[in-house]
Amino acid sequence: MVKAAIIGSGFSANIHAEGYERSPLSELVTASSPTEEHIRSFADKHGLKDYYTDYREMLRREDIDLVSVCVPNYLHHQVAIAALEAGKHVVCEKPLAVTLQEAEDMVETARRKGVRLFYGENWLFAPALARVMEIVKGGAIGDVLYFKAKEAHSGSHSPYALSRRYCGGGCLIHLGIHPIGFGLALKEGVKPMRVYAEISGGGEKNLVHPNCEGEDFAILVIDFEDGSRGFIEANYITKGGIDDVVEIYGTEGVIKVNFSLGSPIKVFSLNGYDYAVEKAETTKGWTFPAFDEVWSQGLIQEIAHFVECVALDKDPRYGADGEGGKNALQIVMAGYESAEKGMPIEL
What we know:
The chain is α/β, with parallel strands linked by helices. Helices cover 34% and strands 23% of the residues.
């Protein structure tokens, strides 16, 4: 049985907790968050016998095998390094860090300590996209010539996402990191060579969100060494709930998937109801309510995979380790450099 702990008590921490609770190979034994009220409530919700307000104290425990880092982006490096140095395997939420130097330090520390650094990119585990990858690898659409992928909604629920210092940027690093990670995994073994991006300017230069220091709109193109291309879109200007879309064009076919609004349930309501889909502003009129949303988005399978890797001492799938997180972040950072300079950036 893999003994797990979580650092953090917010949105992603609750998802990770559910993942550990639903895995037959793991047990969530404790958690840490600096605010007493928050961590007490989290512990009560998940039936934890004890909890900590100081994660460094928690990391001294010898019965912890795996630690989930579910803190604001700017703390990923600091917290993950502490856990890795304590000899724990680590699951880090996206983005891996807010600078490439931090990401490289995390990867190197895991290597030096002989533990695994897992990267929490749920798009790699979403059932619809996992099936897409199988179809592509099976040769159904021939060689991939071009893909486009998007994550968009009307704005983050996290106050940390409004600050460049805390988030590392705007929607490109916060949302675009998902389709970038998926695209790099789709093109496994093919090196990205060049990145070009355009973004809104942040603050008053944004399309909708002047209170957001980072951009609320971003588009990015990746050129690969085999001549294929990827088009990434991320934005905070999309109404109607989270919008995750992928299209893949090959020499012998096409695949199109919308895995955020693909529910088989269709509801018309004049009064509205409790919840339809993440970030949806209303539940009135025609809606497509999600069911087991954390499962359909791959969040449960992601944790199960990492637990299995620890239990069986095996490496994670391509793109779901520290290197995968660092590679995705490299594309994001090249995008920011490209947008600032107004030119493509060679990798």
